[in-house]
Amino acid sequence: MRAKTQPTTKLSHDDQVKAALASLKKRSTRSTLEGMARYAIPSDNAYGVAMKDIKALGKELGTRHDLAAALWDTGVYEARMLVSFVADPALLTSTQMDRWCRDFDNWAICDAMCFNLFDRSPYRWKKVKQWSTSRKEFEKRTAFALFWSLSVHDKLAADEQFIEGLALIEPAATDPRNFVKKAVNMALRAVGKRNRELNSAAVLLARRLSESDDPTARWVGKDALRELTSLSVMKRTLP
Fold first, then answer.
1. Which CATH superfamily does the domain covering 107-239 fall into?
2. How far from 189 is each of 99, 145, 152, 183, 229, CA to CA, in Å?
3. Which of 72, 98, 166, 184, CA to CA, is 20 to 30 A from 144?
4. For position 8, what pLDDT does the model report?
5. CA–CA gap between residue 54 and residue 81 (Å, rounded)
């Protein structure tokens, strides 16, 4: 649950952005900045702040949607990660989601925005379908990272919504780009762990993919099948 919106501050809007950036800089370390490359995260416009510290600052700030938009426009990696904690999902517009998604340039910002923000937007299911056919690697990853997140967080979604989402996985499973295929795989595995009916549907798809002539689809299917048919998942999805 998000923190309540903080009382209006006397600082100007620009000063609020500067204050947030200053708070991030105080939490930065050289070791964190240098370590970003190990995780395939660009560090040329970053401070080097650990995720736990970004999350802590987000909790301090509370929900501030206008500040979130300004923080995004700074282009600073940690400021954009902070957006996932301070933006208001109820106030997100479809256009704003598209704009931010187009700016994604690494898996970490993509996943943070999906798991902390996008998956509570009124447009969440629409965006899964829309972005699933994107030609851009991180836009397409966002579709399946969001689908993955929804399978974990959207407790009220009907099974039919996930069945429709599984239909998007099959054509995407042949995309060999690293950050796409991993998100497709994780989405398939996550849906199959939701309940027994969805496990059966996910296993059928995973088996079909595992027998594909396409090497990427085979990897997606075989890797998912190992988990989805494991004893732990079978027990977890018992009715």
1. Leucine-rich Repeat Variant (1.25.10.10)
2. 29, 12, 11, 10, 10
3. 72
4. 47
5. 7
The residue count for the chain: 239
- Give this prediction's pTM: 0.92
227: which 2 tokens? Answer: 């988990």
Single out the residue of 86, 69, 77 nearest to residue 109, CA to CA: 77
Q: Residue 49: what are its φ and ψ, rounded to 5°?
A: -115, 130
pLDDT one-digit tens code per residue, 30-80 = 999 999 999 999 999 999 999 999 999 999 999 999 999 999 999 999 999
Q: How far apart are CA 61 and CA 79, in angstroms?
A: 13
Tokens representing residue 86 in the block: 């301070």
| Domain range list for the chain | 1-87, 107-239
Distance CA 143, CA 133 (A): 9
Cα separation, 45 vs 29, in Å, equals 14
- State what percent of residues in the chain have pLDDT above 90: 91
Helix pair angle (159-172, 196-210), 10° resolution: 10
pLDDT (tens digit, 9 = 90+) per residue, 87-108?
Answer: 999 999 999 999 999 999 999 9
Measured distance CA(41)–CA(19) in Å, rounded: 25
Between CA 26 and CA 159 the distance in angstroms is 45
